[in-house]
Every structure is written in C-alpha cells, then in structure tokens.
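Thread: Modeling a multi-component assembly for a lab meeting

Hi all, long-time lurker, first post. My supervisor asked me to bring a structural picture of a complex we are working on to next week's group meeting, and I have zero experience with this. I have the sequence lines for every component (804 residues in total). Could someone generate the structure of the whole assembly? Inputs are pasted exactly as I received them:
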Amino acid sequence: MRHVMFAIGVWLGLTASGLSALEIEERKRYPGTSDAILRILSTADLAAFEPIILRFQTERPDIAIDYVVASSADVFAAIKDGEDFDLVISSAMDLQFQLANDGLAKPYISDATSALPTWARWRDLVFAFTSEPAVTVISTARFAGLRLPTTRQELIAVLRENPERFAGAIGTYDVRVSGLGYLFATQEARSSDAFWRLSEVMGRLNPQLYCCSGQMIDDVSQGRLAIAYNVLGSYAAQRLEAPEAQGMQILELEDYANVMLRTALIASTSDAEAAAGAFLDVLLREGLREDRGQWVLPPLRSQADDDALSFGPIRLGPALMVYLDPLNRRAFVESWESAMEQQN
Amino acid sequence: MTPSGSIGRRLTVLLACVAALLSVLSWSMVSSFARQAAERTQDNILAASATTIAEALRSEGDEIRLELPYAAFSMLGAISQDRVFYHVDVDGQTLTGYSDLAPDLETPAPGQISFGTVTYRQATLRMVSITRVVLAGADPVPVTVSVAQTRDGISAIATDLSRTAALLCVAFFVLAVVLSAFVARSSLNQLTTVAEAVARRGPSDLRPLRDRAPTELAPLIQSLNRFIDRLGTSLRRSEEFITEAAHRVRTPLATVRAQAEVALHSARGDEEKGRLRRMIRAIDESSRSAGQLLDHATVAFRADSLAHDAIDLAVIARTVTSALEPTAEMKDIAIELASETVIVRGDGVLLESALRNVVDNAIKYSSPDTTVRIGVSADGAQAQVRVVDEGPGLGAGPFDRFTERFHRGDNAEGVVGSGLGLTIANEVLVAHGGHIVLAQNEEGRGACVTLCLPLASGLA
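Re: Modeling a multi-component assembly
Sure thing. I ran the full set together rather than chain by chain. Output:
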C-alpha cells in the first residue's frame, strides 16, 4: 500500500516536499548560435523526438535546446514544484490538463494553435499534436493455431480456453507506476465492462507488469510475452517496421480503442515564451500535416476512417481530473490490484 | 427671408435621439439579461455537479468514502473550457480536492445549496457548496461538497449575445431614423399643402383660405386670413383715393382752362392774347401730366390685380380715335382707322389708356397736314395694334429708352409732354403678357409703334 500513497503524493503534490527530485531518463543539449535556450521536459524518447528537434533547429538555428526525458509522473511533479522548464510535453493528457487547470501553464495563441480543432486544445493552454491509439501487440508464434480474436470478448475467451499457453506471458501496464497505463485503464474501465473481466482473466494468468510500452514490445519480439495489452500504437508501428519484428503483429480489436492525445504546454515559469511558442508551432504544424511524413509520431488526424477509433480521442476536459482524485485513484488501484494480483 | 433651420430636420433629429436612447437602453437591458441567464445556467450546472458528488458520498464503517462520479466533472466541461476546482470537507477536515479552496466561505445548512463568487489562484470563480449529513459509524457527520469554475465561458456567451444585441439595436436605430425622416416629411406635407394653396392664387384673389388644415395650422391660417382681409381693405382704399384725386385735380383745371378761353376771346391786345395762350398751353400740359400720372398710378394698381375680361381691340381703337379726333383736327391731322374684331383677355380701362397714350404721342409729334394710321389685326396667336405717324420719327439709338419713365426723344424740343406716355403703354402690355415694338416708319419718315398682345384663347 505504501507505494500507492507515494504515487498519490507525487501526482497531486499534496504532500509538502522531498518528492521533486527529477529522475532524468535521458538528456541531450542541442547547441544554438545564440544564447537563447529552450528547455523542454518531455516523456517522449529522444530517439523518437530527435527528428523534430533537428527540424526546428533548421528553422531556428539560433535557439539552443536542452531536451530532458522523464516519466509522466515525474514531469508532472517537476512542473508542479516549479522546476525551471519552458515547454512541457507529455503523453499523460490528464496530468497536463491538471497542470493547466491549476494555473501552471501560460496561454499561447498563434496561427497554428487557431488551426487546431477545438477538441485538440483547451483554453489556449494545452495543445494536442498527436493522437495515438492504444493497441494490442501479439507474438504470432504464440498464437499459432488459434483464431485471432477481433473483440475483447473473444480475447477473454481465447485467454480462458488456453491458460497453459498464456500463463506468465501476458504483459500490460502497471497502472500504479505508469501514468499512461493508468489513463488507458481508467478510460477503458469507464467505457466497457469488458475491461474488468479481461483484468480478472489476466490476473489468473500471472500477468507481467511494465512501466513502459517499449519494454513490453521488446519482450514480445523476444518471445517472452505472447501478448502486450494496451501499448502505444505509435511505438508498436515503429517497432514493427524493424526487420527483427518478424514474429509480432498488431491485434486489431474492433470493439473500441482508446485514443490518447500527446499534448504540450508552456510552463508558467517560462521566460522563453517566444522560443517555446515557435517550437510549439513546429509541433502543431507537424501534427496537422496531411501526408504521412517521415516522422515516427502519428499526426493529429487521418484516423477518422477507422471504426474502432470513431469514438474520438479521450476528451480534453475537467473529467480527466476525476481519476486523478486520490480517493478515486485509491479505489481504482484497489480494484485493479485485486483483479490483477490474484496469485500474489 | 433667411430660414431659421428646418422643422423637418429638427423633428427627425429629435426622433432619432429618442430612438438612440431607446436603442441604448434596450441594448443594456438585453445584455444584462443575457449575462444573468448565462450566470444562472452556470449556477445550475455547478449545483448539479455538486449534488452528483454529494450523492456519491457513502460510509464504510467509520470511514466516509467517495468516488467522484465521472459525470460530475464531464458536465462542467460540456459547455465551456473553464477551469474547475473542487473540495470535499468532512467536519472541517479535507477529504479530497483543493484544500485551500475558499476556506472562509460559509458552509450551507444540510440540504441547502449556497452560491458565491470567490477569488482563487488569481482567478474569479463561481462556487457552489452543498452540505449533506452522512453517517460515519454511529455519528452523523456533515460533509460539504464545493465545486467552483471560472467564468470565462459565460463571459464569452454574454459578450457574444451582447454583441448580437448591439448589432440589432443599431439596425433598429437606423430603421427608426429612416422612419422618423419619413414621418417628419409626411407631417410637414400639410404645411406645404397650405403654402401651395396660397401660392397658386391669382394676384387679385383676396378671398380667405378655406382649405381643410390640421388643428396645429389653424392659428397660422387665421392670421393669414386676417392679413388678407386687411390687405384687401387697404387696396380698396388706395383705389378710392386715386379716383378721388383724379377728380379733384382734373375738374378745377378744366374750369380754369374754360375761364382762360373766355378771357382769350375777350382780350384785345396781342400781348395779352399771347400771354393767355401760353397760360392755356401750360394748363393743358398740367392737365395732361396729371392725367398721365393718374393713368400711371391706375396702371400700377390695376396691373397688380389684372382683370381677365374679353376685350375687343377694335372697340378700344374706335373709342380712342373718337376721343382724340378733336385734338387732331386742331392740328389738321387726319386719323385713319383700319380695324377688325380682335379679342384679347385683359383690363379694358388699361388697354384703352395704353392706346390713348400712344396715339396721343403720335398726334403730338406729327406735323400739320399729316395722317396718323391705326391698324388692328391678328397675326397668328398675337393681336397687334399698329400706330404709324409721319412725324420726325424716333431718331438714332436704341428705342428701349423711350419706355423708361420720364424719358423723351432727342427731337422733342418745343412739344408739350411728360415722357410718361410710352412708359404707361409698355407697363400695360407687359402686365397683359405682351410687349411694345418701336420702329421707324417703313414707308418714309415717322415712327411706327406696335402693341403686341396674346390673343384670347378659345375666343375668335
């Protein structure tokens, strides 16, 4: 239970101090031709994000960029504690929303922000630049001889009928650690009762819990997992293009799919708003591009044709704060733990 | 007369001012209603949200549990993108939410909803609080749920509605100005009608105005009628005065001349006879001048209120000829009259006086043993009376000067005259819409004076 309380403390900053130590996963400086420096705190891997940084620097070579990667919870906590960053990029849209709602974001208006659809921005404070679905990645070998499920009901049935095949080979987010995993889980629980039944079934099969999509996909490709549930579609698509991804495929579940918006905001403590705004414009133009370019992150739209995605992305609004409430979080995590940790 | 502004414009401006005032008033009212409606909508949604949260409160053993309902917050995001803050307080202790949210706001009694406007994190919030009593173990505990939201959304709605209302009010104002101008014009039309009725009248028409007029114009029309009445009286008086003066001057002069004639017959010495002849000539001159001055006054008076009688110029010519024949005979001058019936419209007295003055002039300037010819004819739509003499003629230079008052020809030395004759004739003809043509006699020496008048239409 202790780690749950710890997470609550980090997420809402309700406890006093001592928790703001930012655990930096990656950091890289891109020198510019002038003294101007733009500090970006982001959840996106450097490998995925570097192309956009380089593109920005071809437009604005004068601005140096200090790019820091951390987990979504750490990103939130750092900004909450007033750490000095200009642009905050995160896949946890609920936490980004909370930062803006609590007055920790600066408004920004430009042609690019005005071009965004209304669902992709909130109060000129939070701006979405990608929409990314949660997908399920499976190991083709482990599913050999089975009919591939197309809905969650069928997935539950397949898992139930083949416990020996899937025991210990199901990976999903640890919602206590991963902000994105928590967001996906809560939104899924809200939209379908299949989530809890699936969790029950997974819980009986000794599921492996992960912090991040990348590791889950790695383990599927190396055969340690048969199925990785709720991984980021953009990461999965990127990995599937690689030659060593022969044994993997994305399982198309047609009943519904959660679509997350990757968002950016300018921190209220920023003193380099102009540079942050310029970078934001580049991000948004990239997100609004019509053709599928070379960049790894998916665009903001162009997925409207897909039936499962037609519910639209998770809505950027105050409802996101509901599951951030410590009481709700505690209740949800308790339910999730009792479902997932039946054998522990 | 210099106009002192326009009633129509003043009326339009005043009505437009009223319309502008009403427009501004209605705009501010609509704006304030719109704001109130938007605020009430937000209050209702906040109350619904707080109630939904309060309903979700439950107790487990001694502990109060709460799972925030998703709908409680999603409804707040449905209409606007306002920032949301909340706080759940259990008997003075924060259960969840923003613990520093408006701590001094009074908590409502159980079952009651309170509304308030607070400032929190540099933003103005509308806050709704609701208190519900929940059993924790055996003890009833009051739990207060507060939900607050910024007011940007309703401000945007109110501003939007206010702008629409402003546009509508401007449109109403423009319409009102156009209608005001129309109303002012149509009201003043009554005045124009009266003015036209007065303007349409003939010069001698001094009857009072009888047209129907609005009540407001009655005083003006009454004054106008009284003025017309006074004018008529005054004109009648001058006419009487002129007639009276003519008699008073001419009669004594005639007596004096008769006495002088008698004295001339009984006079013995040539010197005495010569003096008396000069006296008679002077009396003649005075009598003539007095007659012409009175003629001129009569013309000035009668021309202002010209009669439109049918007049036969032949009759006029005969009258004048027979009246002047004795004078002509005295100078051995013959008068030849060639006339046909020519009808014109006008004042017989004036036309006669005009012709008499012209013929008189002709006789006066003619040498003895000559002939003065008078011809009356119609030429197209014009009546002509031509008087031709065999006198010295009009001399050189422009002839217009003969019609100027008191102007006499260069060769008039030694002839009795006042210079009024042709002036009188010209004024009479101009008053009748005609004119006078002065020319040299085409058949030799002498002058030719032609009086031209329009023929009476409809009468042959």
